[in-house]
């Protein structure tokens, strides 16, 4: 199955889900397979499918956890996970509630924030989830172009990885940025 094409069809990123590739591969290769992936905000599931396909291409079957305020994962994506023996959990709640109530359930191996894009709220949640990230875990954040500035998260053990930044051609600010847990 061509997961990249399927992910592009489901993505709200105009088919650009591969902007995640470098950050995702680095994180999956740097953390134990016992550390699940976490996607906060999955809408139609494009980046979830991309994560699944990338993980399988690396021979991994780590647990995938998704969360979206809008509801549950669709049957097609759950079926893809089931047919590939990938354990999964889905939560329907706000980003803030998930971070406060569920983030400590696991030590995360990959985290992708694509839900609440407001700078203050996202920054707060990044700091709250940081203690639960495996060393080497990438915490990637979409739509940082909406932020006024890029905060320093070194006090939370997160270091910005400039080479993983994605900036759309012709746009003055990066669209996607990633931090690594040290």
* Gross geometry: globular
Terminus-to-terminus distance:
35 Å
Give the oligomeric state of the chains in this entry, treating copies of one chain as homo and distinct chains as hetero: single chain
Second rung of CATH, namely the architecture: 3-Layer(aba) Sandwich
Alpha-beta content class: alpha/beta
Approximate strand percentage:
15-25%
Helix content: 25-40%
Low-confidence segments, given as residue ranges, are none
**CATH superfamily membership:** Vaccinia Virus protein VP39
pLDDT averaged residue by residue? 90
The Cα radius of gyration reads 15 Å
Largest sheet: 7 strands, mixed
Q: Can you count the helices?
A: 6
> Biggest sheet, strands in spatial order?
3-2-1-4-5-7-6
- Give the number of domains: 1
CATH topology: Rossmann fold
| CATH class descriptor name | Alpha Beta
Number of strands: 7
The ordered string of helix (H) and strand (E) elements is HHEHEHEHEHEEE
What does this 3D model show about the protein?
It is a single chain. The chain has one domain: Rossmann fold (3-Layer(aba) Sandwich), CATH 3.40.50.150. With 182 residues, the protein is α/β, with parallel strands linked by helices. Helices cover 31% and strands 20% of the residues. Helix 5 packs parallel to helix 6. It is built from six helices and seven strands, in the order ααβαβαβαβαβββ. The longest helix is centred in the N-terminal third of the chain and has 12 residues.
Which descriptors would you attach to this protein?
alpha/beta; 182 residues; Rossmann fold; single chain; globular
């Amino acid at each position: 199955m061509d997961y990249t094409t399927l992910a592009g069809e489901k993505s709200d990123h105009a088919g650009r889900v591969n902007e995640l590739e470098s950050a995702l591969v680095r994180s999956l290769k740097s953390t134990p397979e016992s550390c699940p992936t976490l996607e906060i905000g999955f809408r139609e599931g494009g980046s979830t499918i991309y994560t699944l396909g990338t993980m399988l291409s690396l021979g991994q079957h780590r647990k995938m956890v998704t969360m979206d305020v809008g509801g549950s994962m669709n049957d097609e994506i759950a079926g893809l996970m089931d047919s590939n023996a990938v354990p999964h959990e889905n939560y329907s709640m706000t980003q803030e509630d998930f971070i406060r109530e569920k983030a400590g359930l696991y030590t995360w191996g990959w985290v992708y924030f694509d839900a609440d894009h407001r700078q203050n709220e996202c920054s707060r949640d990044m700091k709250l989830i940081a203690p639960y990230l495996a060393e080497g875990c990438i915490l990637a954040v979409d739509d940082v172009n909406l932020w006024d500035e890029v905060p320093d998260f070194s006090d939370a053990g997160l270091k910005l990885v400039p080479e993983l930044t994605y900036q759309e051609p012709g746009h003055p600010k990066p669209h996607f940025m990633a931090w690594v847990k040290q």
